[in-house]
Amino acid sequence: GAGVSQTPSNKVTEKGKYVELRCDPISGHTALYWYRQSLGQGPEFLIYFQGTGAADDSGLPNDRFFAVRPEGSVSTLKIQRTERGDSAVYLCASSLTGSVSYNEQFFGPGTRLTVL
Amino acid sequence: DAKTTQPPSMDCAEGRAANLPCNHSTISGNEYVYWYRQIHSQGPQYIIHGLKNNETNEMASLIITEDRKSSTLILPHATLRDTAVYYCIVRVDQGGSEKLVFGKGTKLTVNP
Question: Do the chains contact at B101 and A105, CB–CB below 8 Å?
Fold first, then answer.
């Protein structure tokens, strides 16, 4: 079946611009996560949705970052006034439920964001 | 979540067993040990998890010491496609927060 998909696969933008990154989770998965990964580092947690609501947004670095999941399926990560330090691969993952501690997360291929 | 320590890199010959160690000396009684791997330019992929018993699936085996302070992921017959970064993660259900906390992992290179 279809896995987690992310669009675009690559995004190049200029400093100060606004960007939106999209994630399509596996159908039926109620939990959705955003991570970002800088070169040579492991993924870093940003935000976790259970259904439509953000259950944990403690990883968002500042108020330029915002994410939504209005219908409990597709999610959009929004970054305002981008900075060069925002350049990274942004990963999305989904899981069947967020209520069981050993639940497997399925990751998408990521969106590579480059801020010039 | 408890901190984990892994060697930065390891090499293995194709067809041989790859044994990847992980130290998690501050693990709590209700924390699970997870392993994920990330092949170049792809998202991480779940491999296996365990609490205190050894576990085996079609991909790997997980050996957890009796005191639970360390574990070893075993790929019994490594192939070139197993070349990846392997992450050991210790995780507890924090009242609904299901995030994974990744370290830098171990870069495993399988050589022909």
Answer: no
